[in-house]
Amino acid sequence: MYDVVLLTLGSERDAPGGCGSGGACCGGATGADTGPTSQAATGSGQTDTGQCATERPRVPVLACADALNARGARVETVTARSDAEIDAVLARFDGPARPDGLTWPDPDSKTRLVIATASDGQLRAVLRRLVKRYAPAPSKRPADLPGNRTLPDLPPVAVLPLDPARGGTHRDLAAQLGLPRDPAAVAAAVLDGTPRRLDLLRNDGGSVTLDGALLGAADDAGRPLHWRARVEVDDTILTDGSEPLLACAVGNAGGYATLNDVTLLTAPDPADGQVEVAVAVPVVVRSAWGRKRVRLEVRRARGRAVSVLPREGRVPYLDDGVESELTRKRSWWVEPGAWAVWSI
After folding, report:
1. How many other β-carbons are positioned within 10 Å of the β-carbon of residue 74?
2. How many Cβ atoms sit within 10 Å of the Cβ of residue 82?
3. CA–CA distance from 199 to each of 109, 149, 210, 270, 337 (Å)?
4. Residue 177: pLDDT band with limits 50, 70, 90
5. Measuring CA to CA, which residue among 329, 341, 335 is closest to residue 136?
6. Contact present, 220 and 231 (Cβ < 8 Å)
7. Is the Cβ–Cβ distance between 334 and 304 less than 8 Å?
8. Which one has a higher pLDDT value, 11 or 24?
9. What 8-state DSSP symbol labels residue 34?
10. CA neighbor of 275 nearest in space, from 231, 222, 239, 218
11. Facing residues of 41 across strands?
12. Looking at residue 287, what is its pLDDT?
């Protein structure tokens, strides 16, 4: 039977420093409070060896643990509040030592991971640590790594969504992928399912993207602000930076496919080995009577990589729901089938 780790993060934040601000997931806990909350669940009983303030496992986590226990799995719930604590969990998936000294995941591991997520940013925080752990440096690239990849197959993970609302109108990645949301169904996917491999976007800022990114902003009245950037997809230039933009969508999945009533991405597919990119450009046209009006032109392209070079100032953007600002060139590229979810 399998050992199952139910991992939650101690905060919904996913700041640039990692799991949270300064690499912390629970308000930067220090001192005696930095140990992870670890609970070995046997049967229906659980022991509590530490807390982040008054944090305790949420009801869906407990329900999933009960369903796993009922099937004979050995379950441990862990609350991580820093990158280091996430890494301690991920180390359980290391494979045997390789002759080249690289650390790669064990393809025959009997340990399975469930990530309880309140947001896509939390799921991204864990995948980012997986990439950091297993991606070899370019100088140590092994011969058995596929030519279109920079990292090996990452261990499959199960996703336990904690926010019911994100399964409806504001769909999270689990909803887009059609993954189960009921704790018992998630447990069944972990024990009876098969890995469903998905594309991963890496970027030159050291992070990853699972769903997509949306660049641009609006003023306090909700009016979109103009900005300029050079946007390239492989060898296609969508804009050279000389014209104003309202938005740019970088899509691995469909979270940013539409903006208000405008369709940006037409067919984003997280398993096709390509990234879909769109820019929304306001174009001034004249009618037959000489009147000017503004028409929104959406330009699209698909490829293996995309780069965005801001021409001036800071460009606000969302990446898997996490807010940030772009001040220099940023490139994303596709890692086909690099990560996987347990699915039935």
Report:
1. 16
2. 24
3. 22, 10, 8, 5, 4
4. very high
5. 335
6. no
7. yes
8. 11
9. G
10. 231
11. 46, 75
12. 66
Cα 139 to chain centroid, rounded:
26
Q: Are the C-beta atoms of 113 and 64 separated by less than 8 Å?
A: no
DSSP character at residue 313? S
Per DSSP bridges, beta strands 111-117 and 3-9 are parallel
Question: Do 282 and 294 meet the contact criterion of CB atoms below 8 Å apart?
Answer: yes
Q: Encoding tokens for residue 309?
A: 């070079």
Please give the radius of gyration of the chain, using alpha carbons only, rounded to the nearest integer.
22
**Tokens 């993970």 -> residue:** 157
- The pLDDT tens digits for 86-131 are 999 999 999 999 999 999 999 999 999 999 999 999 999 999 999 9
Predicted confidence at residue 34, as pLDDT, reads 38
pLDDT digits (tens, 9 = 90+) for 278-324: 999 998 776 667 677 778 999 999 999 999 999 988 999 999 999 99
* Residues whose CB falls within 8 Å of the CB of residue 23, separated by 6 or more in sequence, listed in order: 17, 82, 83, 84
Residues 6+ apart with CB under 8 A from 71: 1, 187, 191
Q: How big is the chain, counted in residues?
A: 344
CA 50, 53, 59, 60 torsion-angle sign: negative
Question: What's the rounded Cα separation, in Å, for the pair 332 and 3?
Answer: 35
DSSP 197: E
